[in-house]
Amino acid sequence: MGAALGAGLAGYRILCPMGVLKRIHRTVVKPSVEAVLRAVALRVVERAKVDPRITYPCYKSFDEFIDVERLKSLDGYIKEGIARHVRAEKDQPFNTGALTLRLFSPKKPGSRVIHLTQSKRPFRYQDLDKPDLWQRTKEADEFSRLMDFVSTFPFKRTARIMILYDDSGKPVTPHRDHISVNVCHEFIWFRTNLEKPFYMLNHRTNEKRYVESYSAWFDSVNQFHGSEARDGLSFSLRVDGLFSDEFRARIPTPAYNLASSSALWACTSGASAKPRS
Ligand SMILES: [Fe+2]
């Protein structure tokens, strides 16, 4: 028994420091490394040049390119589908990623995601413009009318398609999606009603611009975006993919900072150019 006790104590002496080290790694080292990486990443993107014609915050409305009346007609249908998901409580929480406006703001603020397509390999943000990797989920069959509508959008191929909803009344933490200023993700953000208080934010001037349209393409790199808290259910949808060649031909290409393509288009195309006062 003494030998057994000795062996047990010896084991304890070995396990205890490992446990402490793991805890230190989890609570001190990992967050510190992430904070440094985040600071470096934000510094890189903030120093990136953008076309002088661009003024943030801004977004490009896509209402002129999609059938808004058909979109609005899907409102009750999508709300019913989301209500089923709220009851089931199985959807993944939405994660803003590390590039939040404030270091300690919630990365999982309360919204949830219904994935209508999923990647064939573990999710990487860089895969949003690789349609070959994406396939429909069984949830897409629940929202077949929505999927039919998405097929009318000006994409030649689609990749990630998702519904982002919140019934907790929490805000979506302002964040950037990534920091690759030379990567332009082609996507359409849209909604069937105007209830979600979704905004773009220029953190230098603290100016917010609320999206007033049913659909938009926006610069998710050189400015922040987020949503205010709101009672009741609010939701939006996003489709990523590759715009059709015909549609892409209409879009001005910046000489540098490709991620700002939507911003350049917004700021050089009239109605979307001026921030709301
Ligand atoms: Fe985002």
What is the fold's blueprint, element by element?
Layout lengths: L1 H46 L12 E2 L6 H6 L1 H14 L3 E2 L18 E4 L1 E3 L14 E3 L1 H5 L1 H7 L4 E12 L5 E4 L10 E5 L7 E5 L4 E4 L4 E3 L6 E4 L6 E10 L1 H4 L12 H7 L10
Antiparallel strand pairs: 1-11, 2-3, 3-6, 4-5, 6-13, 7-12, 8-11, 8-13, 9-10, 9-12
Bound molecules: fe (ii) ion.
Specify the overall morphology: globular
Please describe the biggest sheet, giving its number of strands, its sense, and whether it closes into a barrel.
7 strands, antiparallel
Under CATH, the homologous superfamily of the largest domain reads: B-lactam Antibiotic, Isopenicillin N Synthase, Chain
Q: Can you name the CATH architecture of the largest domain?
A: Sandwich
Helix content: 25-40%
What is the name of the CATH topology of the largest domain? Answer: Jelly Rolls
Order of strands, main sheet, comes to 1-11-8-13-6-3-2
Highest-level CATH class of the largest domain: Mainly Beta
Instruction: Count up the domains.
Output: 2
Bound molecules: fe (ii) ion
Series of secondary-structure elements, N-terminal to C-terminal = HEHHEEEEHHEEEEEEEEHH
Give your account of this protein's structure:
The protein has 277 residues and is an alpha+beta fold. The protein has 2 domains: 2-47; 60-269, Jelly Rolls (Sandwich), CATH 2.60.120.330. The protein has 7 helices and 13 strands. The strands form 3 sheets. Strands 1-11-8-13-6-3-2 form a 7-stranded antiparallel beta sheet. A 4-stranded antiparallel beta sheet has the order 7-12-9-10, with no helix packed on it. The chain has a two-stranded antiparallel ribbon with strand order 4-5. A hairpin with a 4-residue loop joins strand 9 and strand 10 (207-210). The longest helix is centred in the N-terminal third of the chain and has 46 residues, at 2-47. The chain is globular, with a radius of gyration of 22 Å. It starts with a helix and ends in a 10-residue tail after the last helix.
